[in-house]
Amino acid sequence: MTSTALPDDRIDRQANPQKGTTLARREAWAGYLFATPALLGLLAFTALPIIASLVLIFLHYDLLTPPKWAGVENVTRLTTDSRMFKIYWNSLRLTVGATLLNNVLGLLLAVGLNRAMPWGLRYLLRTSIFFPVMTTTASLAVVWRFLLTQDRGVVNFLIGQIGLDPVPWLSSSAWALFSAMIYDVWKACGYLMVIYLAGLQGIPAVYYEAARIDGAGFWQQFRNVTLPLISPTAFFAIVISLIGAFQIFDNVYVLTEGGPGDASRVIAMYIYEKAFRGFEMGYASAVSFTLFVILITLTLLQFLGARRWVHYE
Amino acid sequence: MSRQPTPFHQNMSRRDMLRLTGVGAAGAALAACAAPVAAPDAGGDSAPAMEPVTVIATTGMPVNTFDNALERSLERLPNIAMEVNANSWGEGGWDGYSDTMLTRIAGGEQIDVIMIAIEGLRLLTAKNVLVVLDDFFAADEPANDILHNDIHVTLREMLQVDSKQYLFPFSWNNMVMYYNTAIFEEEGLDPPPTDWTWDDFLQTCLQVANVTGGADDRFAYSFWGASMFGMCAWYFNNDVSPISDDWLDSNLLDPKVAETLQFLADLILEHKVAPNPEGWDDWAQFHAGNLVMRTCGRWCIAGTFEAEFETYDLQYQPHHSGPLKTVAGTEGWGVSTSSENPEEAWEVVKHLSHSDTSIDLVKVGGSIPALRSVAAMPVFAEYGPPNTALFYESLDFAATVPSPTNFNIVEPILNRNYATIWNGERTVEEALQAAHDELQPEMDKLKQA
Questions:
Q1: ipTM value for the complex
Q2: So where does this one cross the membrane (chain A) (predicted)?
Q3: pTM, to two decimals
Q4: Do the Cβ atoms of A260 and B102 come within 8 Å?
Q5: With an 8 Å Cβ cutoff, is A81 touching chain B?
Q6: Does domain A76-309 have CATH number 3.40.50.2300?
């Protein structure tokens, strides 16, 4: 039997076409009203500062005295700033290393914790791994600084126990950036683990059952089922971790203060140095803008590349 | 019993409720943004007693240093509600402190009274942040008397720019050698003499150090490895400075600068009696007996009180060449140009510079009081090791720490390059050339400004 009954709202709309439009309009207004605080916040704390920093690029401004017109001086200075290029190279290495390690480790931990195990152990492991995420970066960095000190540091003491020479974790140009990376991965991989875990738990069990029936082992299931189906999650995780890694500031600031020399200084620290130590707000804005352009470009490239490897169910 | 619906519940739809909530929230936000209701005219008949004026002072010292001063202010300054807050040291010493201060002021924060040392004084005066105190002193005979008769001329003049007094000197520091008397005794060493040399010092280091890379390592000495003040403790004892005497040029290519740095680098890299200062906590290690000697000012006594560490004494820094000199820097209280109540702020400056506050400072193991009368009190000797008198005695041959207007730029340049010497990545000459190449253009900018 074919039912000819219409839903109540459709009957209502057919009887009075104006009412549906008014209702939709009202709902739209309610939506705008609720979104307004967030939009105002976005405008006041994100959009306006971006516009202000764009204007500052063309000014000499030290915060305390009136700004002076600088023309393109701050922009041309970018091309001759060898320190900035060196520091960008540090940021790039840290970003690539931290993004890679955070995502690989986050995924592996998520896969490990997604397997059958006693619930108590599961919660203990999840909480332990996620715990550093909840603690303030600066205070943990202070602890890591004590752990990694070359002379009388805990890590070097343990290394010494197995007969190895102490490692200059924080005082050598070769190690300082790597130490910052280790710290970042320890601190952040728990967050990515949670994201990957959510992604893994969203994969319907039916796919694994089908794969098992077809005789697929663990590695084949991981490669042909898990990885394709988790690719949207991985895409999200990579985008946010890459942007986050490029903006790293506090952990390096506390751990190595950017040293020795500029060996572990990252671009966010350089922007801070120019803005709030040298009080060169114009030049700091110019450097910030280069970071903005780089991040936008990288994100766009990721979105373009995602068409090749991200699979939606 | 079920609750009877009220008329509100009967007539209110979910949509109406949401709408009302939205309007209410918007109204509350607008109300919060509105200007506060004007206070009643203080002169009116019904006006209450005049409210105390809030004066906020900011300091780099632990704020509990001023707990007693705050309590005394209730009685001595009844018309002023005094507050003392901490200004962060930022990334470095006084350079980071000055930067934080300027950022807070630029951010519109109320700061009426400022503690700053000579290292940051010129930057703050260049930014027109400090009021000249000469008129206040001229109108206040007791304060003027203290400034000229109870404060050493060196300290007073350190806090002047172009012969104008910007700060009321409160305290100062030099750098002396702290040494562990128990270990000296254990090693059969006499206390170091007043006129000990770098060679004597090195021999002492070699004798007391026990560094094998194990858990029982004992380092002979550790130095800051950064900061103008910490490094000048060594430069001045070799009759040299990293910048020229007029503070307008780099002096890093002076061979004596290289000689000084080489001596210190050798302590780490060749003799292995000193740790790389990067990440090294000389406070904790000295108090734990893992470090025999360290260079510090009087403020390090505070750490010994906290750690209840008593087996130490003091001596001047070892000397190498030129006349005897000790690095010195003074800090004081000044009035901010942004203060809306400069008269009250001046009262707070005097209150915080009072001998009672200086005595509080002595008792917590802080810097050396600027007031000669307080340094001469028994309490000064009581709160310190046997050779405490050394601190104030050195004032007669104290030399001012180089403090150009761009100190906040100079110090990070030097620190960055020093670090590459201590870890052995660059020779002293390479690092000094790199530092000079970076520093001189900044000094040239300063000359053009």
A1: 0.74
A2: 29-59, 87-111, 123-147, 229-249, 283-304
A3: 0.80
A4: no
A5: no
A6: no
